[in-house]
Amino acid sequence: MDGLDTLRDEVLACAAHKLTVTAIPHVDLYRVSQPMSLPPEIYPPFVSLILQGEKRLQVGDRSMRYSAGEMFTASFDLPATGEITQASEASPYLAVRLTLDFAAVSDLLYQMPATALPATKNGIAINCVDDALADAWLRMVRLLAKPDEIRVMAPLVEREILYRLLQGPQGDVLRQAAAVNGHFSKIRKAVVWMRTHYAATFRIEEAAAIAGMSLSAFHRGFRASTGLSPLQYQKHLRLYEARKELALRPGNVAAVAAEVGYESLTQFTREYARLFGEPPARSIRKLRLTDAGPLQASGDHG
User: Fold this and answer.
1) Where do the HTH araC/xylS-type domain residues begin and end (predicted)?
2) Neighbouring C-alpha atoms within 13 Å toward the C-beta of 203
3) Which residues pair with 97 in a beta bridge?
């Protein structure tokens, strides 16, 4: 049995249905026993390793599939929809996810030999896991059986995982996002600001200034990195937040629309239906009938 098979069995033994928030900071496990659509969510920057099954994510106009033995790396907050395409009771979808700490990534970069920043413009990467990285993931998951060791050992293993990610093919994405003068680092500053101010009216020039880029370079770089224009990204943030709130407060469509920045309820309803395929009222009824529960901004699936 190789390291990936052993890791799969360890996660199978530890993961409950759907999301398991573990005692290890930044680490979550996922187990899904049937194909299912995933609710629209805003994922934090993360790396997710599938151990069994297959998943499809839709980010803007990009549709991406990844399966057992592959890692998905996102260097920015990711408004996404998708589906688990391969899963069953006998062979459930299994994944482990690490939410990225860019302060830790930056600290590692300072201690590694200086290299020229890569030219990559895509803020997302899908790559196969290698043996050394699979072994580090395995040691991280095995800490769940040794709770007294988590506080000391988990940060060390996380640091190794980040180091091996930086050394691997997805390292270009992480370097650009963590380096002070990196392309994604500049875009990420604007993304963080937009996450905080999504309900406010803003000019693209304002976001470009926060990124420290010219307007044309910012617009090109933002779309290349996220798959969305800055205004589309803001719209997605507003509508995803609205959907989450409507699951909690189904009788307040007008109030929720105003809270996320819409002055016109008609415009909100139109754009909501365009993104989610149905108007808010119908969407709310479906949300109330499913067992998904309130949507979580942290991302409910790995």
Assistant:
1) 188-286
2) 4
3) 28, 48
pLDDT score at 78: 86
Instruction: Quote the distance between the C-alpha of residue 159 and its chain's center.
Output: 19
Question: In sequence order, which ranges of 214-279 are alpha helices (DSSP H)?
Answer: 215-226, 230-248, 253-259, 265-276
Neighbour-count burial of 16, counting CB atoms closer than 10 A to its CB (0-12 exposed, 13-18 middle, 19+ buried): exposed
| 155-173 pLDDT, tens digit each | 999 999 999 999 988 888 8
CA distance 190 to 213: 10
Q: Are 30 and 15 in contact (CB under 8 A)?
A: yes
What's the CA gap between 64 and 126, in Å, rounded?
Answer: 9
3-177 CATH choice from 2.30.40.10, 3.30.450.40, 3.30.479.10, 2.60.120.280: 2.60.120.280
Sheet bearing 93-99, strands edge to edge: 18-21, 27-32, 93-99, 46-52, 70-74, 124-128
Residues 236-261, buried b or exposed e (16+ Cβ, 10 A)?
bbbbbbbbbbbbeebeebeebbeebb
Which of the 8 DSSP states describes residue 212? T
Contact 131, 64 (CB under 8 A): no
Q: Positive or negative, the Cα torsion across 266, 268, 272, 275?
A: positive
- Average pLDDT for residues 68-83, to the nearest whole number? 91
Counting every residue, how long is the chain?
302
Higher pLDDT, 281 or 287: 281
Which pLDDT score, from 0 to 100, does residue 87 have?
A: 96
Q: Are 200 and 207 in contact (CB under 8 A)?
A: no
The confidence band for 201, taking pLDDT boundaries of 50, 70 and 90, is: confident
Residue 25 has pLDDT above 90, yes or no: yes
Indicate the domain borders of the chain.
Answer: 3-177
